[in-house]
Description:
CATH class of the largest domain: Alpha Beta
Distance between the termini: 82 Å
Radius of gyration: 29 Å
Helix content: 25-40%
Shape: globular
Number of strands: 24
CATH superfamily of the largest domain: 2-enoyl-CoA Hydratase, Chain A, domain 1
CATH architecture of the largest domain: Alpha-Beta Complex
Number of helices: 13
Strand content: 15-25%
CATH topology of the largest domain: 2-enoyl-CoA Hydratase, Chain A, domain 1
Amino acid sequence: MRKKDEKKAVEIVFENIRQRASILSPGVEVVTQTISPDGKTLLLTEQAAGRVNLYTWSLDELAREPAVARQITSTPGFKSNAQFTPDSKEVYFLENGRIGIAPIDGRPPRALSVNAALDVDFAHEKMEVFRQAWTYLRDGFYDDKFHGVNWDAVRTEYAPRIAGAATPDEMRRILNLMVGELNASHMGVAGGGGGGAPQNPVGRLGLRFDRAEYENNGRLKITEIIALSPAANSKQINVGDYLWSVDGTIISARTNLDEILVNKIGRRVELKIAANADGSNAKEVALQPVNANVEAGLLYRQWVEANRAYVEKTSNGRLGYVHMPDMGEGSLRQLYLDLDADNRAKEGVVIDVRNNNGGFVNVYAIDVLARRGYLNMTTRGLPTAPARSVLGQRSLELPTILVTNQHSLSDAEDFTEGYRSLKLGKVVGEPTSGWIIFTGSQTLVDGSTIRMPGSKITTNEGVNMELNPRPVDIPVTRPIGESLTGKDSQLDTAVRELLKQLGVKQAAR
């Protein structure tokens, strides 16, 4: 008879496991999953609309009800480190620095009150932080030759510097100098504390002003109205108008507009807008300001639409345009949306990844461009269309050209290499940054984090892409100040080359 505290060994039988495997369809976007100790429940961490919550899925083969994903948390905070209690009846998790407990039987989650005092000896802590950081890099840095650096000698050199650090910030600055010895991207040490920087509380109207008019006369003359901004949506403000007052405060040379709009995000604000500099016949306009991030997003989309119009005009309506600002999930979805609209009616599309700061979705984006059609479908009364698109698979199936610059980073460079190696089209512009390592992070004992590039990325020919920018087929560097002239020589070249390619194809027909 087995003793009560004796653990039964777990044995995994791999023989014929493929035949015994089954696919679960929980209907939610699963990030992580954990099986309960009794093997009857699967815990799912799900992410949707910027929120992370926990779900359970029954694995009990004798259950009376069919398995469905049951939500056991619904709060907006980010949840992590979810794990079952030993009896499999509750789940512990972290949310906003606090411990939560969620019963799997549907009862509401509750907080676990924890009260502890911690006395830290910084003199000892900083040396342990240093030891951890150095050791993590020794064991995890993607290149076991450390880019030619003697890592043991680095420890000897930096240990006394860390010993002399008087504050945590100074310690982290020294650690970043140590990390810099590796001459690699995706690296650095950042402080803990959680939550990140507080959001700027200043409301944004979506207006740009004439600098000279303000500096010379103290008046805010409107030079630009950002598309889809609060000011644009009001439909009562025009370029050339003057912002005369905000919530009763008259605008003058001594007025700080940001101070007036502090804590006004999402709140009603009364503006007086005048067509003349003297403020005569000013009209009242009510707006709800947005935050700086929203305004930045609107500025970006306005830039994209301006580029799209530029390509359309330059190509006489023959070419479309899309831009990806990063390689995140949101940008991939926007790519799907952009390619599903007007671009599909064009003869070809300019793909722009300039200033793209990377992410992880390059393979999915490449698939959209690499897939080729092999069937068409015609539904009665509707035009003939490629079968892939009709059946819902994302594919462009048009000639393309890619534009890059030296600020195309990380996963954007993976995307560029895929585009080149698969021979999807020519690459125009500047070589990419050469900033390509697959990375994660580690938390140090004081709560600081260190970026950990652990995986080397190589081309099919075995070339390490870190510190090796992806080349272009047609080099074009924009002259300084060109953007102020309304001209984009990189887009001009891309349009010209793609039209040339289309002309050759049409002639071949």
